[in-house]
Amino acid sequence: MSQISKSEATHYPAPSPPPHAGEGQGGGNLATTPTRVPLLNVENLSIEFRTRSGVVHALENVALSVFKGETVGIVGESGSGKSVLAYAILGLLDPAARVISGDVDFGGMDLRHATESDLQEVRGRELSMIFQSPRTALNPIRKAGRQIDDILRHHGNVAGPAIQAKTIELLTRVRIPDPARRYHAYPFELSGGMCQRVMIAMALACEPALLIADEPTTGLDVTTQAAIMDLIAELGARRHMATILITHDLGLAAQYCDRIVVMHAGHVVEVADTDALFRAPRHPYTARLIEATPRADRSLRSLASIPGNLPDLRRSDLPACRFAERCERRDASCDAPLQLNAPEPNHAVACWKPL
Amino acid sequence: MTRLIEVSQLVKLFPIGGTSSGRRAPRQLHAVDNVSFNIDTGESVGLVGESGCGKSTLARVITRLIEPSGGDVIFQGRNLFTVPVKHFATSAERAKIQMVFQDPTDSLNPRFTVFDTIAEPLRLLAGIRDRDQLHARVHALADQVGLAHELTTRFPHQLSGGQKARVGIARAIALHPKLLILDEPTSALDVSVQAVILHLLADLREQLGMSYLFVSHDLNVVRLLCDRVIVMYLGKIVESGPVAEIFRQPRHPYTQALIAAIPGTAPDKKHSHLDGEPRSPIDPAPTVCRLVGRCPIATDQCEHAAPALRAISAKHQVACHYAT
């Protein structure tokens, strides 16, 4: 089956870097050149999982680039490969996964071929992650503060009694009330929002260059969600940190991201600046997704649904465009191998019949 | 419209860490604290609030999955709590109040096929024993919720999330309930599936003339499906009124923060925050407003007198000293 996916493999040109990416967040005085090097560059990444019930073609020719200081959202339904992509970047894939092709370049380092010990040096220091459910990601039998200490100790930024002081400072910065007391709390003694703040403190302990936040607010209340997201955005802006926000909530992505990558069934189907994506989506899937999201100015009547389901990724006869079977714009031209084209600058779409 | 259900002064306390020696009275967690509201026939009411505000407890007390500590629920003129718990499971009221649970996976028996799940209430409460009759009813219900007949022989693990949600709805409407309580029915679903289920719920309500009590923390979803919203905070109703009015002009500071916190597709980075953590729901001081400590407009008065729910227009009530 791997031969099939290889023969189908087409080269996705990396989307051209947006001119406003990176330092340009606050002002237009920085005339950026189009040849700027991204902080993270994923190219042509294909991943399979070998399972008892067949080979799952989880990612195919995925490209992603993230520039310094920008927030990139990855959106899509569950099962579209968002988390697999994050785990692949961090080198945390399940043993059943096989990377078929592709490169992951992070600040000049080849993460795909890096050794485990090299990866351990990078993870937590330069590249860190906020996991989906804070309660299960934290060690249940170790005090919250101690878990942050571990990161600081391992990466050697501080030593001795200064570690605890630094941890308490970090807890203060993520606005945990009464941090000196909460340092000694076990995860079960903290609320969900508080555990999430501990996770953020941990992820930001070594001031990483790139933060990957995988559904950081799923399961939290809207008020807590707003506080957590503002915190991530504020800390990101202050330290010039790049952020990848993985979410299925388009509203959240719209509010906090500079650029959005839309994934469907293991393909990147559209990449655009947030405003452009919501104003004029080009991929039929993106358009449907936006129309299916409830929001203030939408009535139930105008709420669209997306016909069908994600295709079974174990199939060996997956169509070139994995959305084709759910798409009303499909015709014969859709059988051609897919490419991520850029019909306009900073807006790439993988569709033969874009909107 | 006629009144379908009247909830008055409902209280649910959970004792916590009580001492068996009796040296100290057990502390009480006030999950639902003196809550009163009505639902009319055919009306759809949303119940919103943060996790831990008591909205699910309230739903469970009304369906008598847990017993109340005080108060009454009058359903079609009859006080539900006068029916002994033992007999409630087979009473006529049980059939008229049905619930769709939060997690479509956890709320289905993994060893029941779809057919068994939907047939269960028909067997137990409608007393249908005849096989052909059961088949006909189950298939009619499957049609009603858009579930293919061949899926009725499947087990829950063989279904997708959206299909499981449909099974849960089919089971709940099997007995033609008057009141359907929906506890976060779409929170475990993707937006694409959520949209389909929301359309289905709106259609079913129209066809069957049911009333809904829609419990959710997603205000955008509540807005789509409900006529009226009740906002709860730490066991108390803080605001209630018509959906459009509450969204256009929320009066309570908590409702304002809740609505401002909805991430919008129109990027607007300004919102009023509720800082700090909620007050403890364990033995709360009766004279302090529950929002004190997080409220941006709290004054001394709020610490000395808890505001009562008062009407500010015919249909709009709010529990705040400073709401106008």
UniProtKB/TrEMBL annotation, chain B:
Gene3D superfamilies: P-loop containing nucleotide triphosphate hydrolases. CDD domains: ABC_NikE_OppD_transporters (cd03257). One of its GO terms (biological process) is transmembrane transport. The keyword Isomerase does not apply. InterPro entries: AAA+_ATPase (IPR003593), ABC_transp_ATP-bind (IPR050319), ABC_transporter-like_ATP-bd (IPR003439), ABC_transporter-like_CS (IPR017871), Oligopep_ABC_C (IPR013563), P-loop_NTPase (IPR027417). It comes from the Bacteria. Keywords: ATP-binding, Nucleotide-binding, Transport. Pfam families: ABC_tran, oligo_HPY. PANTHER family: TRANSPORT ATP-BINDING PROTEIN (PTHR43776). This is Peptide ABC transporter ATP-binding protein. It comes from Candidatus Muproteobacteria bacterium RBG_16_60_9.
